Amino acid sequence: MKLTSQYFSGGWNLWKSHVRDSSVVMALQFAAMIVAMILIAPGLALMSSHPKFGLWYTVLAALAVLFTIGLLYYYVPVCFLAMRRGQSVTKADLQVGYARALAVSVMMVWPSIVSQILNQASNLEIGLGWKFCIALMAIGISVFAIVWVYAVATMLPLLASDHPDESVWQLTRRCSQLTEGHKWQLFVVDLEILIGPIMVLWVLLMIFVIALVIPAALSGNAAALTSDSSEEMIRLMGSTFAERWGLFTGIGLLCLLVMLVLQFVFVPIQQFAHALFYEDLIAEQEGAIEDTEAEVMQTNHTEEAEKPLSE
Question: Does any domain span residue 301?
Answer without folding.
Answer: no
